[in-house]
């Protein structure tokens, strides 16, 4: 899947660990193109050919029955929705037009895939993350989505649980480490 972000060109997504993961890691080692597998670390790690390595494991969560609901308004904030086609973005904006929380949803058939939900640190504990999620869920339901899925951080997992989401499976990410890049601990040896 094409992503075209500064830190990610694209990604490979697999519903489970298996031979296709092994074949892919044996045939390509492109940095900035992670492999995402809906399986535990110990199922994915043996399938990885060098230089692939496990980057992280996060919980995949699902909500089997999306539902429209009222979204409360926090004083001093407005919620906006933008987007085209099957990808929509919700943003919480201050009276001074600063975007302080947001997220996006991609609609695929009757499934809504929620992604990149965030709240600026200075605006946390004001239920803006919940408002962004409810806004995206409402828009997804209006467009025919029945169920939802997302991959959560540890902090996000507790928020999503309060909104009716449940952990479905571990979601393992494997990467090719960036060599000789700022922040990387992987260095190539100089040529003799």
Key terms:
alpha+beta; Aminopeptidase; 2 domains; 9-stranded mixed beta sheet; two-stranded antiparallel sheet; 11 strands
Written account of the structure:
This protein is of the alpha+beta class. It has 2 domains: about 1-60 and about 170-175, no CATH class; about 65-145, Gcn5-related N-acetyltransferase (GNAT) (Aminopeptidase, 3-Layer(aba) Sandwich). The chain has 4 helices and 11 strands. It has helices at about 20-25, 40-45, 130-140, 155-160; strands at about 1-5, 10, 10-15, 35, 55-65, 75-85, 85-95, 100-110, 110-120, 145-150, 165-175. It has a 9-stranded mixed beta sheet with strand order 3-4-11-5-10-9-8-7-6, covered by helices on one side. It has a two-stranded antiparallel sheet with strand order 1-2. A hairpin with a 2-residue loop joins strand 6 and strand 7 (about 85-95). The longest helix has 15 residues, at about 130-140.
